[in-house]
Structure to design on (221 residues):
């Protein structure tokens, strides 16, 4: 497995809408915290002023005409700022960083589903992330219909522009993730996200304990 140069562990959550990424990440974060581990839970705008402003531009329902390349560049810019302000300092001090979506979202959504091309989106993202890629990426895989139904069933979750895309788009996103998982088998691990929250958490613990030498045993006690 390719391990980044940082003392900490960088773990990202990926997958379609309603797959249960945020739910599972919070549960995992609680577990790590209960065990006294240094943990940072984040997502890309993450309260970082520059990234928050960029993100609100992207997700504004008024901006339906945004060009796909503009969108990809904006995501990469927001990513860069969040990475240097939030993620890298935590990795530097040895923390476990849990990040809700990262570079694979751009590759699957903009690169594959929107048809820009994964290679081209990777080119600008390589510039943005520079040296910091995730150590482990958990891919929450679920039938798009099922994920979207979960969101519909829970009205308290904010509905954003991506949630209202056509089903075909979400199916393409899933295909994009499938490709990525085949391309980066050392980094990306599939989680069967159709399972219950408890079973998903067990899958995650198994994956992490298998793939992390230092915090794995401490996490599982
Ligand atoms: N394993 C699960 N089984 C059934 N429902 C779930 C599961 N995980 C999450 N949910 C519910 O599905 C909805 C979407 O979950 P969320 O974690 O927000 O997904 P995501 O962050 O991947 O979009 C929420 O209402 C959540 O309570
Ligand atoms: Mg979420």
């Amino acid at each position: 497995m390719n391990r980044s140069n940082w003392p900490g562990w960088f773990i990202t959550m990926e997958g379609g809408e309603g797959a249960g990424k945020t739910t599972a990440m919070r549960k995992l974060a609680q577990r790590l915290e209960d065990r006294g581990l240094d943990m940072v839970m984040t997502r890309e705008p993450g309260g970082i002023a520059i990234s928050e402003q960029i993100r609100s531009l992207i997700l504004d329902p008024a901006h339906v005409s945004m060009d796909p390349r503009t969108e990809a560049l904006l995501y990469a810019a927001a990513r860069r700022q969040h990475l240097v302000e939030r993620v890298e300092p935590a990795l530097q001090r040895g923390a476990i960083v849990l990040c809700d979506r990262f570079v694979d979202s751009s590759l699957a959504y903009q690169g594959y589903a929107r048809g820009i091309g994964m290679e081209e989106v990777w080119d600008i993202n390589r510039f943005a992330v520079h040296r910091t890629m995730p150590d482990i990426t958990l891919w929450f895989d679920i039938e798009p219909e099922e994920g979207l139904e979960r969101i519909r069933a829970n009205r308290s979750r904010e509905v954003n522009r991506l949630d209202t895309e056509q089903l075909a788009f979400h199916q393409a996103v899933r295909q994009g993730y499938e490709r990525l998982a085949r391309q980066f088998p050392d980094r990306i691990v599939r989680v069967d996200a159709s399972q219950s929250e408890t079973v998903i958490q067990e899958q995650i613990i198994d994956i992490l304990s298998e793939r992390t030498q230092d915090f794995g045993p401490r996490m599982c006690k």
